[in-house]
Specification:
By secondary structure, the chain is mostly beta strands. It has two helices and 22 strands. The relative contact order is 0.15.
Length: 235
């Protein structure tokens, strides 16, 4: 018997397919800290908030001494007192609602899946300075190239006269962002060095990217937010 933990935005179903993680393991920890199988970057969630433990053909929910409590429906659990859960039960940890689905799972979620869920709860974006100041491009889909340029059909349209119609490709791969100049006429510069056309180059958060007079800043708030949330006290 496995368990799928579905993240709900609140106590009711939202639009679209909510994120979820599936496990077939004797125990999994829900919390804000690194190393939790279900990692929730919310300050109302304790570092090790609650756990789910296999017990025969079902699971037990245990509050691990959290600050803001673990709720099965509207009932707050006593700390370290196991409670049997059923398929479809809704659980609140701090202010975050989860739904539990008990069924055989094809494969357990990996540490990478857990990290991606946490990163997906915070925003990652590009911010620009120059004639196009204020424009942003969110890199929310790993592995999907996004295009920058002056032409139609690009993901971020630039008014910079030195930009080509299809100037630059930006791709997020896990926690990294990669650049590829698409053979632009006036080039793309990273820390003052012109990129080699049609070759992938890693873009670090501290690097300065320029297209003509436009300066593009790469913000990586996801990892910073996760680290800060792990350090902060429970709300």
């Amino acid at each position: 018997m496995g368990v799928t933990v579905i993240l709900l935005s609140d106590g009711s179903d939202g639009r679209g397919e909510p994120p979820s993680l599936s496990f077939d393991a004797p125990r999994l920890v829900i919390g804000r800290g690194d190393g939790c199988e279900v990692r929730l970057p919310d300050p109302s969630v304790s570092g090790r908030h609650a756990s789910l433990r296999q017990h025969g053909g079902t699971y037990l929910l245990v509050d691990e001494g959290s600050t803001n409590g673990t709720f099965l429906g509207e009932v707050r659990l006593s700390a370290h007192a196991p409670r049997v859960v059923s398929d479809g039960d809704r659980v609140r940890v701090g202010r975050v609602w989860l739904e539990l689905r008990l069924a055989v799972v094809a494969a357990s979620s990996s540490a990478h899946d857990t990290r991606e869920l946490a990163l997906g709860l915070v925003q990652r974006a590009l911010e620009q300075q120059g004639d196009d100041a204020g424009l942003t491009l969110a890199l929310t889909r790993p592995g999907v190239p996004l295009l920058l340029g002056r032409g139609h059909g690009v993901d971020l349209s630039l008014d910079e006269p030195d930009a080509s119609r299809r100037h630059l490709q930006v791709t997020r791969k896990a926690d990294q962002v990669w650049l590829r100049d698409l053979g632009s006429k006036n080039g793309t510069h990273l820390n003052g060095q012109r990129l080699t056309p049609e070759r992938d180059t890693l873009w670090r958060a501290s690097d300065t990217l320029s297209i003509g007079e436009d300066i593009l800043a790469f913000e990586h708030p996801a990892l910073e937010a996760l680290a800060e949330l792990e350090r902060c006290a429970d709300e």
